[in-house]
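Course assignment 3, question 2. Fill in each field.
Student: A.L.
Task: Predict the tertiary structure for the chain below.
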Amino acid sequence: MFIARHDLIYNNVDRLSYGIAVIDIDGDGQFEFVVTGFGYANLALKWNGRGLLDCADAVLADAQRQAIAVAAGDIDGDGIEEIYIINSDAFSRPHTHHDRLFGLHEGHRTDWFDQPEYTALANQHVGRSVAVIDRFGYGRYSFFVVNFGAVMHLYELDQQFRLIDAARMARVNYATGGRGVVAAPFFGGDVDLLAINERGPNLLFRNNGDGTFTDVASDLGLSDRQQHGRGVTVLDAQDNGRLAICYGNWEGPHRLWQWDAQQTAFQDITPAAMATPSRVRTVIAADFDNDGNPELFFNNLGEPNRLFGRRQGVWVELDIGDAREPDGLGTGAAIADIDGDGRLELMIAHGETAPQPLSLYKTPANANHWLRVRPLTRAGAPARGATVTMVSAGQSRLQVIDGGSGYQCQMEPVAHFGLGQQTHVDELIIRWPSGATAVMRTPAIDQLIVVPHPAVDDDAIL
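Answer field:
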């Protein structure tokens, strides 16, 4: 499946890296791979037409910290995403350096938590993952931070534009063995939160529609309390317009959960080969070869990575090619069409037990078609948490604009559909966290479509 293109990364030296996110760090409309550094500088790898060159400014690079997770979201509604970076210099005790919440204003990058009025608010515990959610549908995002052995945080701005921790009022202030997290509308409406945990049950926070949440994981059969979760992702596993959940358990059976026929609970549909335990970190769902079928990538630490694909309705293990990395110390991974050719690139970070360089993989060029959709908020920022449904030939395929997934990572804010030899799409249905929807009839294929938020929160025909 994959061919190595590490040569496209300039100055790709051995380093300890963890999380990766795909972010437009400077508001120029071009996305970068932001790679955290554990005792090394954070990187912002921008495509310059020939390769990936680090363009991180000194503030974002933050070379003296030990960063492990990263996500972006527009917390203040100005159209430019803020960047949250979890720093962790301890396994389970309070750490020395607080997390970062970087904002960009008139070309200057600053850390919100460095402001005197917010210093005490900063997370001092051992965070593991972060994702963003627009819990009210206003186009202003909250950063949901899961800690290991300490309460969760939900950082957002109040009505006076003051930074607060809203976890208690939102009823997500649980203390768990926090690991992976993903934000998605599991019930078809407001955006919900799923936290995959270690040494305790998973939590699925259902959005009550008023900004508060209720944990329903046990009711839906998702607790999995005996396992040690890591990376998590969501996908339309059966082309039925419903979200399935896939996550990896550290040295335990991996899970692929699908709604039952009555949509009253999730059922485990994991094939035996996929369930086989591994030292898993990040899990990614994507159509890497644009054949119209999803793949699931399992990034492992110190043992070979694995790739599964749905072929003729059955999930089978695929030849992963160069991305097998039998000696790779995988810690995080993310995907993006960073060079704009309609095929996804896969970047893998390494570290934890020894420094290793980053990896970059592509799939061989083919004749398969594709379609990419990037919804925007009212302010023009990525509409993370929005959904895009592609309808064609009697089938509906659903994707969520990623707010944070994998493990300590965040994918590009684009719905990427492989079409195979299909040349016609009936319609696209875009739904924002605000509840607004837009329908695009018979869009042209082999292109990226940028979709602004409708002027009002009603259906729109584009």
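Instructor remarks: The helical segments are 58-61, 167-170, 272-275. The chain is about 5% helix and 45% strand.
Grade: pending
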